[in-house]
Design goal:
The protein is an alpha/beta fold and 331 residues long. It is 31% helix and 14% strand. α3 runs parallel beside α5. Bound molecules: zinc ion. The site of zinc ion has 5 residues, from loops.
Length: 331
């Protein structure tokens, strides 16, 4: 649906401002890793009065924490703590929907473009390794039943505010699809983010500086070739391991081709700060492993953390519904 002219223009302006304010971030090294997203510019004063009323009503807090959930295989027969069954995934997504979480992509989170209704909370759903249990297409071109994408879309039909969007961190030839030429364009065309997870799932510390940059750069190129027009914005580190020079995860190059990311995602083990928080570090964004309330290290898993966020709602990011204004309860 087209946006009203005024709103479209405002969003465009904000995007431009954010892009300008963040340009040094993409070009910098570790010493600048504490540069933060600039809060959006204020709207006209009449809008402020209305917005502040909404903010009070919904206890908006856009400096609160954001859960970034991490999934791997979605399988009937889990064999590791990283696996979840289709029923586990459905139950977790339904819990998120009923607790007023709205999925946004990792790219939207790191750039501060969190455009969700007032009173709702952003959640980032991330899927690593391009496993075919996350996404596959039927011969008719529909998401295969019981894949993560099919489950996500099904949950979204039952909960109108829940958006079926996620970030897929892929290696070369994802989802059992040579070159990703069938799957990646579908994902991109349906609002999903495709993020880099290196070409061959390399341990970037062991790869050395040149090797790490080659792995990241070639993974980046593979995404661009599989989904023409894609421009990867974020990366998740295989095994959660940075290159020896951590800044090379954000920015570097190989064979004459450069890459720049806005966020580097880790493997564990707690909610991520608001992108407007002084604690936000684009080089080290924590994620939470999807997990039941029991099992190995379950205190760092999603069920435990969603329980904690529900028990202390003041610590959680709650939107004021206005994407171009940051609601700070401390002011
Ligand atoms: Zn991985």
């Amino acid at each position: 649906m087209p946006l009203p002219d005024g709103e479209a223009m405002m969003r465009k302006t904000i995007r431009t401002l954010l892009a300008a304010s963040l340009l040094p971030l993409a070009a910098c090294g570790a010493e600048h890793s504490t540069v933060h997203n600039t809060p959006p510019t204020p709207p006209p004063s009449s809008a402020v009065a209305t917005t502040e009323a909404i903010q009070r009503q919904v206890d908006a807090n856009e400096l609160g924490d954001v859960p970034v959930l991490m999934y791997h295989r979605i399988t009937e027969k889990p064999t590791s703590v990283y696996d979840r069954t289709p029923e586990d995934l459905r139950a977790e997504l339904e819990r998120l929907a009923s607790e007023k979480y709205v999925p946004v992509t990792a790219a939207a989170y790191v750039t501060g473009m969190i455009d969700i209704p007032a009173g709702t909370h952003p959640v980032v759903l991330t899927f690593d390794d391009g496993d075919p249990t996350q996404f596959a297409l039927t011969p008719q071109g529909e998401p295969a039943p019981r894949t993560a994408v099919a489950i996500m879309r099904d949950v979204a039909t039952r909960y109108p505010e829940f958006r079926p969007v996620a970030t897929f961190y892929v290696n070369g030839n994802p989802f059992g699809d040579p070159g990703g030429t069938r799957t990646l364009p579908w994902l991109r065309g349906h609002g999903m983010e495709i993020g880099n997870h290196t070409l061959t799932h390399a341990n970037l510390r062991q790869a050395g500086s040149a090797g790490a940059q080659r792995e990241i750069s070639r993974g980046d190129q593979a995404i661009r070739q599989g989904a023409v027009g894609a421009d990867p914005v974020t990366i998740s580190l295989p095994f959660g391991i940075h290159p020896s020079d951590p800044a090379l995860a954000l920015s570097g190059g190989s064979d004459g081709v450069r890459y720049h990311y806005r966020g580097v995602f880790l493997v564990g083990a707690n909610p991520a700060p608001s992108p407007y928080s002084p604690r936000f570090d684009p080089l080290r964004i924590p994620r939470i492993r999807s997990q039941a309330s029991t099992g190995k290290e379950a205190q760092f898993g999603s069920t435990a953390w969603l329980d904690k966020l529900a028990a202390a709602p003041a610590n959680r990011f709650t939107s004021d519904g206005v994407p171009n204004r940051m609601a700070d309860p401390g002011k």
